[in-house]
Every structure is written in structure tokens, then in C-alpha cells.
Amino acid sequence: MDLDLSEEQRLLKDGVERLMREHYSFENRRKYRAEKLGFSEAMWARYAELGLLGLPFAEVHGGLGAGAVETMIVMEAFGRALILEPYFATVVLAGGILRHGANEAQNSKLVPAIAEGRMKLAFAYAEPQSRYDLFDVETQAKRDGEGWVLNGTKGLVLHGDAADKIIVSARTAGGAREKNGIGLFLVDANAPGLLRRAYPTQDGLRAAEITLQNVRIGGADVIGDPAGAFPIISRVADEAIAALCAEAIGCFAEMQAITVNYLKTRKQFGTTIGSFQVLQHRAVDMFVELEQSRSMATYATMMAGESDVTERERALSAAKAQIGQSSKALGRQAIQLHGGIGMTMEYSIGHYFKHVTMIDASFGDTDHHLQRLAALGGLFGDQAIQR
Amino acid sequence: MDLNFTADELAFRDEVRAFCRSAIPADIREKLIAGRHPSKDDKVRWTRILAQKGWAVPHWPIEYGGKGWTPVQQYIFGEEVSQTPAPEPAGSGINLVGPVIYTFGSDAQKKYFLPRIVNVDDWWCEGFSEPGAGSDLASLKTRAVRNGDHYIVNGQKIWTSLAQYSNWIFCLVRTDPDAKKQRGISFLLIDLKSPGVTVRPIQLFDGYPEVCEVFFDDVRVPVENLVGEENRGWDYAKFVLGNGRVTIACVGLSKERIRRIKELASRTRVGGERLIDRVDFRKKIAAVEVQLKALEMTQLRVVANQSKLEKGTQDSTSSILKIKGSEIQQATAELLMDVIGPYALPYQSEEEFQSGETAIGPDWAGPIAPAYFNGRKVPIYSGSDEIQKNIIAKVVLGL
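YS: structure for the whole thing
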């Protein structure tokens, strides 16, 4: 057992933290958000320069061959800065699909473009009716000679408006909620018949509802088995959960620090409010949530690549449930301890609160994951249940 | 980063597991699984079994009987013992006063007391709290006045765990009433058979007389029973309370409880189905399991960090172990109450169990409600959770 970062991982952490310190003040973030796509193209170029965009990809394709721990490091730093760029959508989600599902030809074409910052991707996995069930896919993909024709509606496509290409999950066989019969298709964002309704999310990111009307794609743009891609989707979703947990930890740590600092400086009744025991104990409650969540984010990172699927899903569900629970408990205190200023758009704390709330509503909230964990037998003493 | 134990650590775990499973007397194990309190004799028997194996005090320095295990090995050992389940080795001697004696005590104290602690020839209790000194421990009033080569001790201790079975007590006593309150306290070892000592058990509301009042009326204590320097007792007390913070999370105990909850819930029928098959109940268990897993990981982070810390300093994260540990212990006790339902009502005393009286209701029902009641103590003892929060606010958050 070893919970330390390696020397290389420490360097990565220093590098990305320095980048955030130098370029991602809350003031800068406001400016980046006003740019055309709702984020900073200049920052995107810097991520490419630092190697972050190629981080998890294989070295033969121009990536750095890094693992879940490196992604955790980057996502935590990004969470602290509350970045707006489509890193999660491009590198973690779509990148994950490529790493686990794409063939040699696809990877050698796409990965260098992603790593160099020339191409952004999005992953359209959800539909209006599907909530958190990744297998609830009604969008249809029908054979059309060598290629395929797609019809349907995909919802909540994170950074769908900025994407050059969109990976779409669609059904090639089976009933609406079957795990078999789902395929993954790489679609050009400006393909004829693809309509994007772009919008801002609550937390200041961008997303799109996407309609596919007879969208034609070539046979070379199928990723993996066109009727058996669900295991890839589910594996990427678990990696995504680990990454979101790490991002949430960055947010929580910053919320904790901002709040404690406020308690030390804000004066009422002739003294700093941090001298009041009732507020101290609430700050400690935040600290407990932060540390418990950090433990689970670490656990999620180390279990994201677990080969036993049941063990992996149990672990990731437990982590996501913890993070969701903490985002409520810690977020509630963070706003309350600030009082009125915490309610303003101008101040940062509410933006963190909004982002962790949206993280809870992505890839399954606490309730969804407690349900999944319970259905999988829980974490301890499963064998004590008599059959 | 790697969460897996190394091959050596796994081999070690298997060795500890195999030993514990084969060495634990069946009657003690059954008692613990049922959720009943181990008796003094149970604890002594088990500690001596460990002592014979050389494992009674593995965390002590090698020269006093320790094993020189790594923090991870010690963690594994603790986990395996509590999941056997086996009793914690005789606690106050091994975990509290022993380390004080080998760290601050005289050579004579080390030579006399340490081997007797290892073999449980002495049973120790902790005399810190007083009626007027609970959370505000430093305001304690028990006086020790130097008279030649003795101290004369007068005063009262309270909440002294299992003092009725003890023959020695380690006490915080006031030796300088004029100094600032933390500065005038000394650490004294007192033979409970000394004339002038009275021990009176207090029955807790679950029925178990777990704690006592201890009265000192002109008790003569030889000066060689002073530990370390006079008026430095507060430092030693902080050392005691800092020790064992990792085990205070009781992760192994809570895991064993979860196992028990699942087992009993699969034997219990509610509305025509097994309780364990009800989605709402499964989710309630899962919610506690998540917290417990997080606590286990927090504990592992503390353990992994231990070898890197300077001696005597503490990981700030370790301070949350007690708070979260007590919350989870109470949550598992509540789940057991959910399982038993109406047959929580009948009360049967420990004596009735021992005399082999037939159980009223399911044979596993008896200890569940008392354990739930008894579990209220956890956020109160060893520095209440509110005091823990004061400490975190000050030391960690700088408030």
C-alpha cells in the first residue's frame, strides 16, 4: 500500500497548479466566460503546450500514457480554479471512448489532433428520457450500405456547441432499455441533419441538445462493436465519475479555504466571527466532509481501472454518493457562513456551489448511486446475507 | 499510488487472520458476535493468548516487547483482531499508561510495570475526569501534597472505566494549586488497594456498570510513583489522549456490525419478504457503508502518512477519526434496532444470559437495544466530539 505521488506526478501537480495560479484568477474566469465559445482558447493552447490534452492517451498516438492518478491531479487543480474549458468533455469523456473503443486508424488520426489542441470532442450519451441510465438509448442507427444513418435526440451534451466531432451512442438492435444493441458513432458536428441547440448550464459551462435527422456517417466512423459498445460506455462513465470526484475535491478545498478565511476577517459584534464556537463547529463539519470526500475520491481513482466490474462499480458508486452528499452538506455551510455576500453573483463561493451541485447531477446523483450500490450487494459483508 | 497491500503485507494479514481465528476461544467470539460485553476474564484470557504469541503490545518499542511492525502492519493487525471478532487487548494498560511509562517513566517504573502490563498481571484504569472537570479537564481538583517520600492524595475521580476490576489507576492530580491550571498537574500511579481508596460502580442506563467513581481519602502514594516531572502531567495527559487516535475510529468493529446487520436482516421477515430484500433498507445500509468506506480510507491515509511524520506530531486528518467513527458506530446500532423491531422491548440481564436462561424472542435480540443505548457514550468519552471540534477549529483551521 502506497498513497504517495511519484516524483513525476508531483511535477505534474506543481505545473498545473502554477498554470492555474498564473492565469485563472476568478477575475480572469469572468473574462474567459465572455469569449465566443464561453471559455478561453488561449488557455486551451496552454493545456496543449503543457501536455494535458494528451495526458491519458497512448504514447504511440502522441499522448503521454498517463493513468487515473494523473487525471485526478489535473481535475483537482481544475476544480480549484473552476475552469470553463471542455477538458472533461474532450479528454476524459470522448477521450475515454477513444482509448477503450477506437481502432488504430481512428486513434492515430484523432489523438494527435486532440493532444495538439486542434480538435475538441463531445460525448452524447444521454437522452431526454434516460436520466442516469446510460443504457436507456432510443436514438436509432440503421445500416445504410457501408455506412449508417442516425435518427434521434441526444440531451445534455456537455460542450456540444464547441465540439468539432461528437461521439453518439445509438441503438442498432434490441429494446429501448437493453444493454445489448448499443453502438458508438463518430459524427462531424456540422454534418447535414445534425442540429444543435446550445445553451449555458447553471454553473457557467456550455451544453447542447442535439437532434439527429437522417445523419449519415461512413463505416469507418463506428467505434467498436456497433451492437456491443455498452461495456465501453460504462467503463468510461466510471472513469468520468472518478474524474468528477477529483474535480469536486478541488472545489471543496477551495470552498473550505475561502470560508475559513472569511471567518477570520469578517467582524461583527466587535470581533471576528470565526471566534464564535457555533461557526467554528460548522467550519469543522466542512473540514470533515472535505477529508471524507478526499478519501473517497482517492479510492475512486484507484478503483477506476479495476478489472472486476462489480468491484469497480461498487467503488465508484460509493465515491459518487459520498461526493454528492458532501456537496450538499459542505455547500450549505459555505454559503450560510458567508451570509449575504455569499448570495451574490460577484463573489466566488456561489459559483463553486453551483458547480458541485451540477457534478452531483452528472453521471448519477447520491440517490442513484446508493441504489446501484445496494443492488450490487454493498461494500462489506455481502457473504453474510443468507440465500 | 497503490491501494493494494504488498505480497508481504498480504502474507502477514493471512498469518494474523489464521492465528486469530484459531486462537480465539469460541465462547468469547460468540459473545462478541452477539454484541455482548466481554468480561474482564475474557479480556485477560485473550490478551494472554496474544502475549504468549508475542503480540500483546506490537506497537511498543522492541525493547519492551514490541514487534517493530510498520504502521501498515499494525493497522492490519488491529483490523484482523476486531474482525475475528476478538476483544481489544486489555486497553488502558497496553494503550494508555504503558506508552506513558516507557516514554516518560523512570527505569524502575519501566522494569516493574511494563512486563506486568504485557501479561495483564495488573489491570489499569484511567483517573482523569472529575465531577467538576469533564470537558474542562484542566480544572481538576484532586490534590496531591508532598509529605516526605509520599504524596497524600485527596479528591474524587469519575467515569473511570471498569475501575471495579482494576488494581491500579493512573491519575492526574493537582500538585501546585497556585500555578496556571495546566501547569500545576502531575501524573501519578496509584495502587487501588491503598488504604483510603473507595471504588463505587455507576450503572449506565443500559444496565451495565461500566464506569465508577473513585474516592481518595488521605491516600499515601510513594513519590517513586510520580511519572516524569512534577507539574508536567498535562503534557503526559495530552500524549495519552493523542495515542491510539487511529484505532478510535473503530472501523473493524463497524464492519463486523454491518456484516451482522446483513446476516440478521436476511433472517428477518417484514411484510412477507426478507428485510434484506427491501430496497429502502438496503439503501439505508449502503449509505452507512459509504461513510464507513470513506472513514477506512481516511484511516489508511493517516496510517500511510505516519512513517513520514516527525515523532510526537499528529496528522491533522487523524482528528476527524473519532468524530466520524462515533457517528458511524451509532448509525450501525440504529440499523440493528431497525432489524430487531418490536423484540427490542424485553430486557434480560447479563446474569440471565450467563445462567443460560432461555432468550425472550429471537435468541439474538437481547443485546441489541442495550448496545444501542450504550453506544450513546462514544461521542462523549475520550474528549467529547464538541471538544474534538474545538481542537480542529484551533489547530487545523486556525480559528
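YS: worth flagging: Chain A touches chain B through 46 residues (CB under 8 Å).
IM: good catch. Also Chain A has a mean pLDDT of 97.
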